[in-house]
Amino acid sequence: MTTQNTDVSVPALTALSEDETLFRDSVYEFADREIRPLVREMDDHAKISRQLIDKLFDLGVMGIEIPDAFGGGNATFFHAVLAVEALSRVDPSLGVVVDVQNTLVINAVLRWGTDDQKRTWLPKLASNTIGAYALSEAGSGSDAFAMATRATERDGDWLLSGRKLWITNGNEADLFIVFANASPDAGYRGITAFLVNRGCAGFTVGKKEDKLGIRASSTCELLFDDCPVPRANVLGDVGKGYKVAIETLNEGRIGIGAQMIGIAQGALDHAIAYTKERKQFGKPIAEFQAVRHQIARAATDVAAARLLTYNAARLRDAGQPFLTEAAMCKIFSSEVAERVTSLAVNLFGGNGFVKEYPVEKLFRDAKIGQIYEGTSNLQLDTIAKQLLGGS
Ligand SMILES: Cc1cc2nc3c(=O)[nH]c(=O)nc-3n(C[C@H](O)[C@H](O)[C@H](O)COP(=O)(O)OP(=O)(O)OC[C@H]3O[C@@H](n4cnc5c(N)ncnc54)[C@H](O)[C@@H]3O)c2cc1C
């Protein structure tokens, strides 16, 4: 016997509240109107214009979870996920700027900042200051806690020395959360997070990477040579930076899931429009069953990725465990983004391979989802550890 669920108060798993729908739609409309015309140029020049970033501040997507007392949007992590998805549907480079700002930098300051640090930084982050999150180094990517950057105590304050690599927003940021080991003998228990201003003595932003995808988003080397950081700028406790890193990255990777569903949806939108328009053998290619099935499968993939991502974000906002779900959403969404963008290139035929059309860029942009904020192998390790135990 089957029982029917007649409880209409249980909505669809991806249902949005009225406020969430309005928010997502307003971000997408902005992206469509203001960003879309600039996508090609920003990709070619590997640069986002400052005016566009200022508009992101005006739109309210650079301080989504910041309480209104500090001038922020007073919204949820889920709203940040919606914003990253909506922007990435048009340009994933803008998606990652907003992602790092909200899900890593602001998230860390909200969670670990002292009252003074919040008073100093949150109003700036909500209004005009871009943040960056500096963990990785040339010798420590997946093995992030093997970092070589050191923090040495001097008269109660700190001197940072070392070199960070691949830091998103490096070119534009004025606030950097920098991880350094203050006590190498203690291993990862020496890792400490510091709030560092651009312009701090001994701190320079080095080379900017020339990348395959998300080219407009800056990815930079940071150099620290006895950079003095006051003790008041330690974020969280000395020796607890590993906790700051693990916990913010666990959440941040849900944002990458959102970036990837945005990319996949963007590619699907283009593929649907193009296949209805392009004629071969006397009819639109969307009328060939093989093409219809490919599009149907891609839409199914995107819907499944969205379910995983929204579910992880909802769990996070509800204060429930979400570690496994976050890892699953990132690995799955990034694979979906790769598959769907690749299909879109195929369905555009020769036009899929040239820069005049939008899908080759999305195909290039999708690749990063399997690399940053923990590679796919590391996500699988996280999931397997929950299922099987072990390290
Ligand atoms: C565009 C871009 C933006 C970035 N932004 C930031 C940023 O803002 N802040 C920041 O701190 N970092 C950032 N990164 C760095 C990024 O997080 C690292 O590149 C990533 O964590 C992988 O580290 P790695 O490059 O050293 O690769 P490696 O760790 O050397 O990995 C290489 C390969 O080995 C595999 N591997 C490694 N260890 C294991 C293992 N134990 N088991 C199985 N397989 C393993 C990996 O899965 C991968 O396939 C960015 C990188 C890029 C490319």
Task: Outline the structure in words.
This protein has 391 residues and is α+β, with helices and mostly antiparallel strands. The chain has 11 helices and 10 strands. The strands form 3 sheets. Strands 1-4-5-8 form a 4-stranded mixed sheet. It has a 4-stranded antiparallel sheet with strand order 2-3-7-6, with helices on one face. Strands 9-10 form a two-stranded antiparallel ribbon. A hairpin with a 2-residue loop joins strand 2 and strand 3. Helix 7 packs antiparallel against helix 10. The longest helix has 37 residues. It is globular, with a radius of gyration of 21 Å. The chain starts with 17 loop residues before the first helix and ends with a helix. The structure holds flavin-adenine dinucleotide. Flavin-adenine dinucleotide binds next to strand 1, strand 3 and helix 11.
The percentage helix is 40-55%
Oligomer: single chain
What's the average pLDDT? 96
Model regions low in confidence, pLDDT < 50 over at least 5 residues: none
**Which percent band covers the strand fraction?**
5-15%
What ligand molecules are bound, each kind once?
Answer: flavin-adenine dinucleotide
Cα-based radius of gyration, to the nearest Å: 21 Å
End-to-end C-alpha gap? 44 Å
Structural class given helices, strands, pairing?
Answer: alpha+beta
The ordered H/E elements are HHHHHHEEEEEEEEHEEHHHH
**Quantity of strands, as a count:** 10
Largest sheet: 4 strands, mixed
> So what's the overall shape?
globular
Strand order of the largest sheet: 1-4-5-8
Number of helices: 11
